[in-house]
Amino acid sequence: MRPDPRETDPLSDVVAWRAGHIVAIDQTALPGEFRVLHIATVNELVDAITRLAIRGAPALGVAGALGVALAVAQSEREGWTAARLETEVERIAGARPTAVNLRREVLATAAAIERGPAAVEAAAAAVRDAVIDASLRISERGARYLSQACGTRPLTIHTHCNTGALACLGWGTALGVIRMLHEQGELGKVIVDETRPLLQGARLTCWELGQLGIEHYLACDGAGPFLISRGLSDAVVVGADRVAANGDVANKIGTYALALAARRAGVPFVVAVPESTIDDATASGEQIPIELRPADEVTRVLGVPSAPRGTRALNYAFDVTPAELVTAIVTEDRLIFPGRAAGTDAAAAAPKVSR
């Protein structure tokens, strides 16, 4: 039996509830500084979410659920009206539009408000526990799938952005699958895209892999498809912020190019997500709202200007990978082969793995 990550992994407390407030690791400070935020108001939480101090779809869902408890506690202290409380809860839900987990978990937890603060805290804690449990099950299922799809030789996995404990709690999603392969002796090394513009791959994924003692190599985003074309990767494994009902996948900008390269090279392109990231209410990727972020994230690198003053930027935070390019979606409960319906070769070649 695998150990409970809540007992063995200190990063499972990346977002947690402590004595009436939220504690969270400030992901904008890593890897240079390990800084813990103590968040006592809705304003502080919304700021932490929008500036990406808290990020990653599952972690955002947990932050949103705990945020409802935070809003209720602040309401009790400051004597808010019911209408004000509803407004503040909506501010949390809308802090980032692309990741479906945030709004979903906010609304689910807010349903307990009428039962009182203790019920809200219990509902938020249940969301957090479910996210951690799901991460371990995703890790196990994804590693088992890749072992069958690619063989049990030491594998080289290409990944993008950050999908470990920092983004997903517990073991993570895509990075959890990688971690499980490592524990089973089936991982050779990991190729990590830097992930422009905020370098979550370079700053966060490389940091987590280093903590785990996993061999890894950093690559420029633009080099990823070329490396895949040269046969340097056995599979591409990524997370997602939303999966549409048809299997289209919204993930960090740069993912689409990796999926195209994986299809051309004939290697699996696997998306690891919790069930809560699948949005059956959104028919396809065309309906997924894509966040457009400030230009200075592109025109500056870690605060240092990298473009002439006045340069404008198209800083879309996410792209959408069509379902036909996705070999498999791995969740805590099942394997989904979205491209299979389109009759694609990669999908047809994917092994059937039982639940």
What can you see in these coordinates?
By secondary structure, this protein is α/β, with parallel strands linked by helices. It has 2 domains: 126 residues, Up-down Bundle (Four Helix Bundle (Hemerythrin (Met), subunit A)), CATH 1.20.120.420; 211 residues, Rossmann fold. The strands form 4 sheets. The protein has a 7-stranded mixed β-sheet. The chain has a 4-stranded mixed β-sheet with strand order 11-8-9-14, with helices on one face. A hairpin with a 4-residue loop joins strand 15 and strand 16. The chain is globular and about 60 Å long. The two termini are 18 Å apart. The N terminus and C terminus are likely disordered.
At a glance:
This protein has helices at about 5-10, 40-50, 55-80, 80-95, 100-110, 115-150, 165-170, 175-185, 200-210, 225-230, 255-265, 295-300, 345-350; strands at about 15-20, 20-25, 35-40, 155-160, 185-195, 215-220, 235-240, 240-245, 250, 270, 280, 300, 305, 320, 330, 335.
